[in-house]
Amino acid sequence: MIRINLLPHREEKRAARRRQFFALLGAIAILAGLIWFMGYGVINGYISSQDDKNRFLKSEIAALDKDIEAIKHLKEQTDALLSRKRIIESLQANRAETVHLFNELARQMPEGTYLKSIKQKGDKVTLVGYAQSNSRVSSMMRNLEASPLLERPGLVEIQSVTVGSRRLSQFNMNVYFTRQQTTAEDDVKENKKLKKGKKS
């Protein structure tokens, strides 16, 4: 009977399997290393690209902030210029106000009355004067009420006084001056009317 020893063959087979296992393990480790390296490189590329974008955005934001500051400065200058323009327009519109006020008061003063003082604060005008009688004061108030430039006359005080040898009524009243201002829209409308008139 022939006996065959299979132990060396089995050992060789086991050694071959071990070699295959370690080779496969090495290949897997190398493949995992390659995947990790590639993933790390890709992620770093994304991070670097995002950092570049962030730097660009920061520089653009800084430039926009400077532009916004410049715009704010320009707006402040514009507001200041518009305020000056409004003041100049107001002064131009009201430069003849005092003349109109005195002319209107002279027109509306009835006979037997005269003014001692005139004070103006804004639209309010305070009149102090003398009249020959209370009825003259009433007549003056009616005239002022009917005036196109003066309105809301109100008697503050009236009392009997002696001036020289004459007995007079001293009055103190307030009246409001109606400012005759033309707005920019009125000017535009007036210009349009003039242009239409020229065309026709």
Short précis:
With about 200 residues, this protein is an alpha+beta fold. Helices cover about 65% and strands about 20% of the residues.
* CATH architecture call of the domain at 91-177: 2-Layer Sandwich
- Poorly predicted tracts of residues: 181-189
Order of helices and strands: HHEEHEEH
Mean pLDDT: 81
CATH superfamily of the domain at 91-177, please? General secretion pathway protein M, EpsM
Note the overall shape: rod-shaped
How would you characterize this protein structure?
With 200 residues, the protein is α+β, with helices and mostly antiparallel strands. The chain has a domain at 91-177: Gyrase A, domain 2 (2-Layer Sandwich). The protein has four helices and four strands. The protein has helices spanning 7-94, 97-108, 134-146, 184-199, and strands spanning 113-121, 124-131, 150-163, 166-177. The chain has a four-stranded antiparallel sheet with strand order 1-2-4-3, with helices on one face. The radius of gyration is 50 Å and the shape is rod-shaped. The termini are far apart. Keywords: Membrane, Transmembrane, Transmembrane helix. The chain crosses the membrane at residues 21-43. This is Tfp pilus assembly protein PilN. One of its GO terms (biological process) is type IV pilus-dependent motility. Pfam families: PilN.
Which key terms come to mind for this protein?
200 residues; alpha+beta; Gyrase A, domain 2; 4 helices
Helix and strand layout, with pairings?
Elements: H1 7-94, H2 97-108, E1 113-121, E2 124-131, H3 134-146, E3 150-163, E4 166-177, H4 184-199
Antiparallel strand pairs: 1-2, 2-4, 3-4
Keywords: Membrane, Transmembrane, Transmembrane helix
Protein name: Tfp pilus assembly protein PilN
Organism: Sterolibacterium denitrificans
